[in-house]
């Protein structure tokens, strides 16, 4: 191909460079968070050490907070939001998950439920707390230890919403990566 033809083809596509770049950035930002376009399940969230299914009616949001995943109701604008679910992990201050859960319950004036649950085979503990009206605080929390980390599935609200079924859906679908 001659140099003149190459230049004319390049000149033809030059006006499309910026819109193409904007489109690629939009597509990349659309598929971050929990949705993974390469998987068959668009509700699957990957937090690095585990996966879980995002409950119906909840969207993954980007956040500046140090959290593994932040979910908010799909149909509520951010400024009107009263509920959210956060997945967090940290180095545990206690040796066992049950003691971590007791400490959490004491901190948030909650109760540790007597029957433990499981996060894909790891013993986990439910903490229920009332929270203060008008303040975002955890109300439904599941705590487990796995490979030297404490994992928290925190359902929180500022209006004391019942998030137990949404947190339970995450617990049931939780899978540790091998």
Q: At the third CATH level, what is the topology name of the largest domain?
A: Protein Transport Mog1p, Chain A
Top-tier CATH class of the largest domain: Alpha Beta
Count of helices? 4
Number of strands: 11
CATH homologous superfamily classification of the largest domain: Mog1/PsbP, alpha/beta/alpha sandwich
Q: Would you give an account of this structure?
A:
The chain is α+β, with helices and mostly antiparallel strands and 178 residues long. It is built from 4 helices and 11 strands. The protein has 2 domains: 1-30, no CATH class; 38-176, Protein Transport Mog1p, Chain A, CATH 3.40.1000.10. The protein has helices at 3-13, 17-30, 97-107, 164-173; strands spanning 44-46, 50-53, 58-61, 69-73, 83-90, 110-112, 117-119, 122-129, 137-146, 149-157, 175-176. The strands form 2 sheets. Strands 3, 4, 5, 6, 7, 8, 9 and 10 form an 8-stranded antiparallel beta sheet that branches. The protein has a 3-stranded antiparallel beta sheet with strand order 1-2-11. It is globular and about 40 Å long. Mean pLDDT is 80; it is low at 4-33 and 35-39.
């Amino acid at each position: 191909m001659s140099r003149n033809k190459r230049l004319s083809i390049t000149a033809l596509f030059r006006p499309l460079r910026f819109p193409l770049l904007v489109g690629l950035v939009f597509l990349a930002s659309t598929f971050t968070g929990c949705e993974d376009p390469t998987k068959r399940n668009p509700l699957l969230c990957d937090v690095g050490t585990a996966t879980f299914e995002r409950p119906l009616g909840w969207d993954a949001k980007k956040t500046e907070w140090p959290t593994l995943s932040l979910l908010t109701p799909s149909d509520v604008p951010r400024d009107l939001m009263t509920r959210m679910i956060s997945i967090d992990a940290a180095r545990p201050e206690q040796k066992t998950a049950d003691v971590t859960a007791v400490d959490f319950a004491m901190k948030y004036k909650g109760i540790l439920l007597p029957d433990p649950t499981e996060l894909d085979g790891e013993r986990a503990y439910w903490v229920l707390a009332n929270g203060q009206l008008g303040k975002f605080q955890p109300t439904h929390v599941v705590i487990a230890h796995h490979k030297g980390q404490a994992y928290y599935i925190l359902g929180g609200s500022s209006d004391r919403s019942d998030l137990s079924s949404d947190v339970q859906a995450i617990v049931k679908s939780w899978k540790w990566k091998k």
